[in-house]
Amino acid sequence: TRYETILTETKNRVGLITLNRPKALNALNLRLMGEVTAAAADFDRDPEIGCLVITGSERAFAAGADIKEMQPNDYMDVYLSDWFAAWDRLGQIRKPTVAAVSGYALGGGCELAMLCDIVLAADTAVFGQPEIKLGVIPGIGGSQRLTRAVGKAKAMEMCLTGRTMDAEEAERAGLVSRVVPAADLLGEALAVAETVAGMSTPIAMMAKESVNRAFETTLAEGVRFERRLFHATFATADQKEGMAAFTEKRAATFVNR
Ligand code: HXC
Predict the structure, then answer these.
(1) What residues are labeled active site?
(2) Which of 93, 121, 204, 229 is the most buried (most CB within 10 A)?
């Protein structure tokens, strides 16, 4: 393939991206950022794909941005190249995304997980924003998304002390949707993704867009936004099919239109 730092495969309408820099615990260098965002954009455009999964290795989802790559840069280097801004493209993916996190999800690794829509954790997962120990702060949205996910108390403590959370605490705090045994992680993530991919893809995209609006606006505006999209679902073939299948007591066959 054309990728050096990731592996990609597709199965049952799911596009899987596996971070693959094992010697660096999947540290997120610029090459990997370009490859993940390009692969995700390809899956997003592919009508045969309904959901994406991003995973790492058993030992590390990703141990952060690549410190060795960042180290030689000065302010003008990172400012002029808008270092890390390309990760925002992952947040623009319209199809649902699932992060399957095993082992370290530190710094940019935690931020990458939080850029995904559903986060599943292995019982071995460790989440943290230890940037402060390096004399920097989170740079891929960590201070914002972690605070929205777990609240100010834990986000402040994590960003100010670098303390990590284990999978149990991350679930209790609302950072992950579920914790599963490490050996089952990828299987569970693919099962969740296949479930999503088996729904109408445009309707799943609308559901994702509507939930995400909750992070961007007031409740009244968000409810209005949802109502408009809910009405719009009635313009789809899949709404006709979904409701017909229910009344006819059969499984729905969605056409993703
Ligand atoms: C570059 C990294 C790396 C990273 C690990 N490695 N994390 N390389 N960037 N973020 C490399 C190590 O240098 C080492 O390579 C190899 O991976 C294995 O790591 P070890 O440290 O030997 O493993 P271990 O002792 O098991 O410790 C694991 C670890 C530790 C606790 C995860 O590696 C660690 O603390 N990593 C850094 C975590 C971190 O600070 N992340 C935040 C990054 S900043 P060699 O070649 O030496 O064997 C960030 C913020 C972005 O993400 C925004 C700020 C601008």
Answers:
(1) 65, 108, 111, 131
(2) 121
